[in-house]
Amino acid sequence: MRPRIKASAASLILAATALMTSPSPAEQVAGKTEVTPLPAANPLRETTTLAEATVVQPTEPLAPVPTANPFRVADASASTNNAATPAGVPVPATNPFRVVGLVDDPGPLAPRTPGLLDALLGRVSSLTGIGAASTDEGDSDVDAADADTDPTAGDDAVASADTTAADRDPLPDELTNVVSDNADALELSVERGDTLLSLLTDRAGLDRGQASAAVDALKDVFDPRKLNIGQQVTLYIQPGGDEGPQLQALTLQPEIERMAIVMRGSDDSENLSFRSQEVKKPLSVALAGGSGTIDDSLLAAGNRAGVPDAILYQMIHGFSYGVDFQRDIQPGDHFDVLYERYETADGAVAKPGNLLFAHLSVGGKEMSMYRYEQADGSVEYYDSKGHSLKKGLMRTPVDGARITSAFGSRLHPVLGFTRMHKGIDFGASKGTPIYAAGNGTVEYIGRFSSYGNYIRIRHNSDLSTAYAHMNGFAKGLRKGDRVKQGEVIGYVGMTGVATGPHLHYEVLVDKKQVNPMSVDLPVMTVLEGKDLKRFVAMRDQLDQKFAALPQQSQQVAQTTN
Questions:
Q1: Is residue 24 predicted with pLDDT exceeding 60?
Q2: pLDDT computed for residue 252 by the predictor
Q3: What is the DSSP code (8-state) at residue 203?
Q4: 224-232: long-range contacts at Cβ-Cβ below 8 A with a sequence spacing of 24 or more?
Q5: How many CA atoms are closer than 13 Å to the CA of 194, on its beta-carbon side?
Q6: Helix ranges restricted to H, 238-288
Q7: Of the residues 76, 295, 332, 432, which has the maximum number of CB atoms within 10 A of its CB?
Q8: What is the edge-to-edge ordering of all strands in the sheet holding 258-264?
Q9: Is there a contact between 456 and 464 (Cβ–Cβ < 8 Å)?
């Protein structure tokens, strides 16, 4: 019996050693040489010093290995064979192995204790690739920031000391005498739920006193409540001693051509103050053009050609007197457009300007529009012959709408029986602006039976227009007020008997509803004499400027003369 007991003890010792160095029995049978992956439990959980890392005390269930790899060293050149760290040094609260990014040689990972720890590290290295440089740019950025942060600082510490005077972007001229050379530049992006005050206190670690003072100063040039998600806010912060970090300046750019700056004034504890300043970049006017084939809608085709929505809406508005953009536009139709845009000195596009020229080919019918300013300063769009595009009425008094129900007999979607539909329904999202179809006087405004919120405008003794199911009316609009063509009179809604948000639009001749799409609308203005000659010269000049734009894209801006 004794020899059998000794053999069993030896087998147990060999089995324990094999846990770290030998493949499993199943792997041996299969003839495999791979090592078995480490268990999820962390065998070093109870180790209290680096020197005692060989002592494992499984006194409680072992916790899972944390997601972040404690052995991940991003710098491949960092050697683990340098001079050993003195034994018995306690493990700090932060992970001593988390050294990533572009750093100097961090020294050894642990004292060179031979035996079980070496075997364990060897197996972990073979499974995780310890020592390889990190290729995950996102992780590298985050870890580098962590490496630069004082591990003893609390949650209120500045999140990342990103940039100092040596490598930060050039300061605005207004800040050169305010921001010190050793100040950190911290750029934060506004996220959902952020306020400027929470950005300064919670994320930048500033005390509430100076944060509130900076926000109050900014209000003189920019409303902090108008911060948008994604807005970049740059803080210049002087690292503080006992008083904590000190804000020296703050900048944000509400628009490309405008920057808001807050600068520190007096800095004594009893009179902390900031002052604000608005800096505007000079803009120049350039020409840009776009061309495209319409496969779905003019808006979609224009976006593909890089034309701003504001320009496309001007184009739709101008052509809407003679084009039903819901039914007339067909795949294969074509458009050309020439417009102004404002740019900064470095070529950044700040905003679109005026639509100068547009051409639209619809079902073989060619139409053009030109912007022309008369001698008295009035501006309108005219066709190539000098006839105003404006008719007595707009056929479509709402932008970007689709016709959901035409004029004529139909099955009523709510009442369930066939009846005459005495207008046109334009489907649009709730709140879309509704325009006065022509110059006139508000004859009725308010609730009206199944029409819900309703406006009727009298244009002359014979002609009126009506607008129903509105969500609301333009502020201050009352019965008897004069309105101009294109003026906002209300907003799309679904009041009254309606199944969804839309505008019900009617044209009334002698108080009888007629089809808005077929009624004959007179031209409002025709150029004559000297005005016509000036217009023809301007028209030819715009045609030449459009033709001079690069034909491949028709989108490259050229500086105007």
A1: no
A2: 92
A3: I
A4: 224/195, 224/196, 224/197, 226/254, 227/190, 227/194, 227/195, 227/196, 227/252, 228/190, 229/190, 229/191, 229/192, 230/189, 230/190, 231/189, 231/190, 232/187, 232/188, 232/189, 232/190
A5: 21
A6: none
A7: 432
A8: 184-189, 232-238, 246-255, 258-264, 274-280
A9: yes
HSE (side-chain half, CA atoms, 13 Å) at 561:
3
Closest CA to 195 of 168, 223, 217, 165: 223
In one-letter notation, the amino acid at residue 414 is V
- Listing DSSP states for 84-138 in one string gives PPPTTPBPPSS-TT---SS------SS----SHHHHHHHHHHHHH-TTPPP--HH
Question: 417: pLDDT confidence band, cut at 50, 70 and 90?
Answer: low
Strand partners, 447: 453
Asked if 429 and 492 touch (Cβ cutoff 8 Å), the reply is: yes
* Sequence-separated contacts (24+) of 294-298 with Cβ below 8 Å: 294/329, 294/330, 294/331, 294/332, 294/333, 294/334, 294/335, 295/331, 295/332, 296/331, 297/325, 297/329, 298/325, 298/329, 298/335, 298/360
Write out the E strands in 161-319: 184-189, 232-238, 246-255, 258-264, 274-280, 284-294
Q: What is the dihedral of CA 102, 108, 114, 120, to 10 degrees?
A: -30
Are the beta carbons of 237 and 186 closer than 8 angstroms? yes
Q: What is the pLDDT of residues 133-161, one digit of tens each?
A: 333 433 333 333 333 434 334 344 333 33
> In the structure encoding, which two tokens stand for residue 74, read together?
């991003």
In three-state secondary structure terms, 146 is helix
Q: Which of 466, 400, 393, 403 is nearest to 433 (CA)?
A: 400
Enter the tokens of residue 188.
């934060």
